User: Which sequence fits this backbone?
């Protein structure tokens, strides 16, 4: 499996990872063969790249943290909630509660979930899918703190609704592909307070979850917004969601930028550790995202090429690699696997993109 830009797709190629449409429904399922009409559709949806089964590479299965069914339901709930706010109807807390329960139960049933790659998202549905991505990451990170299940659920609800205030901001500004003017940026910044005001009045939701929406753009050095809170003034729950929010945004395609690979996004988050971001939260993130996700093509320090076929949960930067080319560039046909956790003198030099 490897990512291929949409302009290089050809009919007959097999889809390796499910693609969702703007409503969060499955547009093209994993395993389907591409047709010209599908490629045209992907172009129309501004989807930049998709994951394709590569016949020459060993096939690897990328584990997903939650089922497609729950993910689709969650995306629908975010969308419905935003529509309820727009039409000034009552927010349906029961639906939010049920879907958070499903996400939480599915994650807790597995023993150590590792996030591999972000979904391919159509640009228009970014906000909905981003909410679900941030919720999953926040739950996983929360497992590294000594919270009760009830507390983790409140964090998950805050994460799920963290950007809900964006519905009150002018759509043209939210969807603007280019750089925002200072004035527009001031408008966007208001979404934290808008979100807090919306959530705090929903019957059944804890005020602490509402504070996550209010504080998710604050930084521990006081340079965030809207209030410029510092260190412990920011709730630990909000600090978790801040880190999850940044990581998920960096690894998602947006209109104005191409997504980063996990090792690149983690590097940026690590650079903010201790200045803008809580070290404890950044460490919690690193325990649950695969630096080199299954399916990544890598060059090892001895010049061999390989593909990541599994991760070591105790050290996510040292995966298990199946060698596909030797140092001289000759293809390897017999199965040769290297577990980097047991090979101190061998490391990953770089990620090969195409
Ligand atoms: Fe936000």
Assistant:
């Amino acid at each position: 499996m490897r990512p291929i830009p949409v302009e290089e797709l050809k009919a007959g190629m097999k889809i390796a990872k499910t693609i969702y449409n703007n409503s969060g429904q499955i547009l093209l399922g994993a395993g389907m063969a591409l047709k010209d009409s599908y490629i045209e559709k992907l172009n129309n949806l501004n989807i930049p790249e998709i994951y394709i089964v590569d016949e020459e590479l060993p096939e690897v299965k990328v584990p997903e943290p939650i089922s497609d069914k729950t993910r689709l339901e969650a995306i629908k709930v975010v969308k419905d909630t935003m529509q309820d706010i727009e039409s000034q109807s009552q927010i349906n807390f029961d639906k939010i509660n049920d879907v958070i329960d499903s996400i939480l139960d599915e994650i807790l049933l597995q023993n150590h979930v590792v996030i591999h790659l972000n979904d391919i998202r159509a640009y228009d549905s970014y906000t909905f899918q981003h909410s679900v991505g941030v919720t999953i990451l926040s739950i996983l990170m929360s497992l590294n703190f000594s919270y009760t299940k009830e507390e983790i659920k409140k964090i998950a609800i805050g994460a799920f609704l963290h950007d809900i205030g964006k519905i009150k901001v002018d759509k043209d500004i939210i969807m603007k592909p280019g750089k925002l003017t200072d004035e527009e940026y001031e408008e966007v910044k208001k979404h934290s307070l808008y979100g807090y005001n919306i959530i705090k009045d929903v019957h059944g939701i804890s005020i602490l979850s509402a504070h996550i929406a209010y504080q998710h753009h604050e930084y521990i050095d006081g340079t965030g917004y809207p209030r410029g809170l510092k260190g412990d003034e920011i709730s630990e729950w909000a600090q978790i969601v801040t880190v999850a929010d940044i990581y998920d945004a960096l690894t998602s395609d947006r209109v104005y930028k191409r997504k980063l690979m996990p090792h690149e996004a983690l590097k940026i988050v690590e650079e903010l550790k201790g200045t803008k971001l809580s070290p404890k939260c950044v460490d919690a993130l690193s325990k649950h995202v695969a630096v080199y996700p299954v399916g990544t093509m890598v060059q090892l320090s001895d010049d061999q090429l390989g593909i990541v076929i599994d991760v070591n949960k105790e050290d996510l930067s040292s995966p298990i690699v199946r060698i596909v080319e030797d140092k001289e560039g000759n293809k390897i046909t017999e199965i040769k696997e290297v577990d980097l956790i047991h090979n101190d003198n061998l490391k990953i030099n770089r990620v090969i993109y195409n």
